[in-house]
Amino acid sequence: MNESLSKAQRALIHYGKLGDPENEAIYQQIFATIVDHSLPPGTKLKEETLCEIFGVGRTRIRKILFQLANDNIVTLVPNRGAYVAYPSVAEAREVFTARRLVECHLVRVVAAEQQERARPLLEEHVQRERQARQAGDMGAAIRLCGEFHLLMAELADSPILGEFLRELISRTSLIVAIYERPPVHNCEMDEHASLIEAIAAGQAEQAALLMEEHLRGIESRLDLRPPRSQEVDIRKVLSKA
Amino acid sequence: MNESLSKAQRALIHYGKLGDPENEAIYQQIFATIVDHSLPPGTKLKEETLCEIFGVGRTRIRKILFQLANDNIVTLVPNRGAYVAYPSVAEAREVFTARRLVECHLVRVVAAEQQERARPLLEEHVQRERQARQAGDMGAAIRLCGEFHLLMAELADSPILGEFLRELISRTSLIVAIYERPPVHNCEMDEHASLIEAIAAGQAEQAALLMEEHLRGIESRLDLRPPRSQEVDIRKVLSKA
DNA sequence: TCAATTATTTTTGTATACAAAATTGAAGCG
DNA sequence: CGCTTCAATTTTGTATACAAAAATAATTGA
């Protein structure tokens, strides 16, 4: 067989991007730890340390860090190493803009085409999140809250937008970790509940509106004013003395 | 300094994702060759061969292939190697859906907020594309046509949506290579021209509409009927004899 | 004492050697 | 002649050794 395009190729055997299941597991573990705020933004991720933790060589850790960088939750600085990403205010704003665009679209599709399938799936999920929150497991709660939004892509049968949304949601976690104002309940549960109602009723526009408000609500509970700590003109500050 | 978050980190030194400029150049070269249809979908990309071509070790080629896989224009099959991606019909459809969503949004923003800045930039670009086409350099024409669409993200100052769009556009190139019907002029030049008019006039809704039609036009000139070569039920076909 | 410079250590980047898996080609059997 | 089985070859996956760069510590001279 001299043919360049093999059947296996067309069949699209999707193993996750890292090929090996063990690599995938390590990736997921680091990913989860970043997203649930256990590793705060800016944390240095030294290769050697990760090697020891997971008992693998540097090659594999390197591949995983590169993947995380592609997810935009890790920043790779040449010759300096990997850090948990620290999104800027501008990035934060655009993440929310993009989320509104994508999620309003998805929720509209789901409400229009998948009302019946949606309700049980979504309600079961909200239920699980409620339980995690009551049990005090905030890590799981954050993860489940993100997954709720990802379910829209699943229901709309939109893997490409889903993958993009997955990125946006994990970046949102970092943004919240950096810019949250003291008393923040990330995703209000009752907002999810009323969203489910609109979807199940097939009210696409109403659902889109609720999603829009929901996301604006999250954004508005952050402190995204431009002039943050850095950005100070040393000259002006010091010339007062 | 024991601090985990360094100043260099915050400053976000964006070197391209591959760190080294030489790696970036190799990446760009392979990327361009795939997108301009020199390497057709399904082509096997053997590591050793690429090493010889570019005179570098396998480690670096590997990183570059991994990056291309993240762009979704290369598929990595575990233990089998890298292939130029071969998007399915379903993927093709979703790429166009996502493009309509993103590009209509961007063009609306540009028409509403950047009318004055937009016209000269866009017209100069269309001009260059026209020249390439007349010179018969179809590779450059394809590239420039894609860049025209990317300019919207630039003008709208939306790097995140821009990066996503960059992916979608390069995937479109593969899709066109696979599913085009005989006489296809990829992006109609005059459609771009009327789009520029609407933008420069600040007619956001009109511009969005034109973009929508433009993208639907491209999609409609493809042959995206579901039952393609594979997908045949062997039993049914053979039981007739 | 403090700043600048140099030496040392640490950490990342790349090539390469070796192991594992897949492909190819050759026998062997029906 | 076609099909399976097994060996030989090719190709990918990973660890590791070494080079390059950055961070840290020590030294020197005002």
Descriptors:
homodimer, 3 strands, 241 residues, disordered C terminus, DNA-binding, three-stranded antiparallel sheet, mainly alpha, globular
Description of the molecule:
The structure is a homodimer of 241-residue chains. Chain A is mainly alpha-helical and 241 residues long. Helices cover 66% and strands 4% of the residues of chain A. Chain A is built from 11 helices and 3 strands, in the order ααβααββααααααα. In chain A, a hairpin with a 3-residue loop joins β2 (74-77) and β3. The first copy, chain A, is globular, with a radius of gyration of 21 Å. Residues 1-13 and 231-241 of chain A have low confidence and may be disordered. At the A-B interface, α1, α4, β2, α5 and α8 of A face α1, α4, β2, α5 and α8 of B. Chain A binds a DNA duplex (30 and 30 nucleotides) through α4.
